[in-house]
Design goal:
The protein has 308 residues and is mainly alpha-helical. Helices cover 72% and strands 1% of the residues. The protein is built from 14 helices and two strands. The radius of gyration is 19 Å and the shape is globular. The two termini are 26 Å apart. Bound molecules: geranylgeranyl diphosphate. Geranylgeranyl diphosphate binds next to helix 4, helix 7 and helix 9.
């Protein structure tokens, strides 16, 4: 198995795409065609699949422990990877709505509400959010004990609740969020929480007794989420609509603080470097107790260098 993020992605992206396609097969015999089309349109539309990849990477890391004899059977964790991407897709559908970020473009294509109308987009989001826990609770018990499944699903859905809290802070951000602590809090909730769900859920299922490892992975997810958001702010301030696949500079237009507006471009890059170092410190601790963390090292590098 490749220890670089690029190699790992190349191996697993096709499997993630087909797992998502399988999770979004519907057999409606009534008028719900528009709903299922909108759900598929919004999920199977070319995202980077970073969260799903993080789930598979975390599983690879935690499966090195004795209990799993170093064997990661990725098919057992694919439902978590799919469910997290489905939740992420839902959050983007609702984020793009006129009442939220009001963006006509997503992943280089018309946003869900532009393609299907606002009413169907709201319902498609609702249905994606409902599908994710249903899928987890149906699929995971085939591979894991029920009590572990409940813990993992509760963890994921609690992080989803934090995303809602983060979004609530975000829509009022122009009024309240003007300093670094408030910005970190908002972005941890809005972006970092789902990263934590992606990384910690596999450990809750495959290494449930490794309490220190689980805590360390949660901390790693925290710094990774902030790093991702800082690089998002940098990319947003320096990219065209074509490069981005959505409208750039929206936050600035809406008077919201970003890492770039607070610290400038080079200041934001320095903040990103601080998150990288914090995440590396956590990884060092994980490596010291015998886990191989090269994949997680490599994803830090990918996030810092990414342009989309
Ligand atoms: C309950 C999950 C949930 C959400 C309800 C609408 C809403 C409340 C929250 C919006 C959260 C949001 C849009 C956060 C931004 C996260 C982010 C950085 C998105 C971009 O992620 P990428 O770059 O996107 O990984 P791709 O397209 O590659 O998947």
């Amino acid at each position: 198995m490749s220890s670089s993020f690029q190699g790992f992605s190349k191996t697993y992206l096709p499997q993630i795409e087909s797992a998502l396609d399988a999770a979004l097969q519907f057999d409606f015999k009534d008028d719900r065609t528009a709903l299922s089309e909108a759900m598929r349109y919004s999920t199977l539309n070319g995202g980077k699949r970073l969260r799903a990849l993080l789930t598979l990477m975390a599983f690879e890391v935690v499966s090195q422990g004795k209990a799993n004899q170093g064997k990661a059977n990725q098919t057992t964790i694919m439902p978590v990877a799919s469910a997290i991407e489905i939740i992420h897709a839902f959050s983007l559908v609702h984020d793009d709505l006129p009442a939220m970020d009001d963006d006509d473009l997503r992943r280089g294509k018309p946003s869900c509400h532009i393609a299907f109308g606002e009413d169907v987009a709201i319902l498609a989001g609702d249905a994606l959010l409902q599908l994710a826990p249903e899928y987890l609770l149906t699929e995971l018990p085939q591979h894991y004990a029920a009590e572990l499944v409940l813990k993992a699903v509760a963890y994921v859905m609690a992080r989803v609740g934090e995303v809602v809290q983060g979004q609530t802070l975000d829509i009022k951000a122009h009024e309240r969020v003007q300093d670094e602590a408030a910005l970190r809090h908002l972005h941890h909730l809005k972006t970092g929480s789902l990263f934590q769900a992606a990384i910690v859920a596999p450990a809750l299922l495959a290494a449930p007794d490794q309490v220190d490892l689980i805590e360390a992975l949660e901390q790693y997810g925290f710094h990774l989420g902030l790093l991702f958001q800082i690089t998002d702010d940098i990319i947003d301030a320096t990219s065209t609509v074509e490069q981005l696949g959505k409208t750039p500079n929206k936050d600035r237009e809406q008077g919201k603080a970003t890492y770039v507006s607070l610290f400038g471009l080079s200041g934001a890059k320095a903040k990103a470097a601080i998150e990288v170092r914090s995440a590396q410190d956590i990884l060092e601790g994980i490596a010291q107790v015998g886990y191989q963390v090269e994949l997680f090292e490599s994803v830090l590098n990918y996030i810092v260098k990414r342009r989309a």
